[in-house]
Design brief:
The chain has 293 residues and is α+β, with helices and mostly antiparallel strands. 27% of the residues lie in helices and 24% in strands. Strand 11 and strand 12 form a beta hairpin. The longest helix has 19 residues. The chain is globular, with a radius of gyration of 19 Å.
Length: 293
Amino acid sequence: MTPITEVEGRRLALSNLEKVLHPATGFTKGELLHYYATTAEVLLPHLRDRPLSFLRYPDGPDGQVFFAKNVPPGTPEWVTTAEVPRSEGPARMVLVQNLPSLVWAANLVTEFHTPQWLIEAPGEADRLVFDLDPGAPASVVECCEVALWLRERLAADGIEAYAKTSGSKGLHLLAALRPTPSGRTTEYAKELAMEAEKALPRLVVHRMTRSLRPGKVFVDWSQNAARKTTATPYTLRARAEPTVSAPVTWAEVEECRSARPLTFLAPDIAPRLRDHGDLLAPLLDPERAGPLP
């Protein structure tokens, strides 16, 4: 029998709670749901008012992994949805606005991916993002070197950057912006990626071409495009271990000498929140948002 639980007055059927989703540690679906429920206070503000792209892995990372952008079949009527413009025509997508909708979405077993804009102003970016992706044998260590250069370069333009792990191999840099057309934000990000490649030619590449990337960090500027999404802070990733896209301090970035200290699993997050709170909370403060130069 499928367990029924009540979350803030909404009845939810939760399925397959004993299924192992992250085989390297035996992390189950029940543990995944517990993680999201107990992290909701910091996760929800980063999801709110942003149309959600699901990267689903219902049978774990070794099973089928697929993106779903449209409202899934069987979505409860109380889950908020909104029409979102797309080049191929408008689509209806989910907005995770509260704890019941978060638990419902988590029960689908998904990574959470969101755009750099809010539903009230599609295509007007309120965040800038750089996805630093290392090509082997480079690792997050090299990503940290590049992140520190980008942090200083952004600061020179009056933009304050914050870092989080990707939950995979790399690092994400985020900054709050006053609403700016996504096309302009993308142009600016590309300009900085090209500057980084010129300043750090042995470390950085700004083009996605695979043959250019071994041993270097690809500074992916393209995720600022209105149609693109990035892993949301605190989302679990579809990996063998239950890795999290976790905010990190700049001291941790500066001190990084190996990948393991910047690899965070679901059980690591509650202690980090007790120690640091939400390190990305400034992204949610309109007073901290700066204009592009």
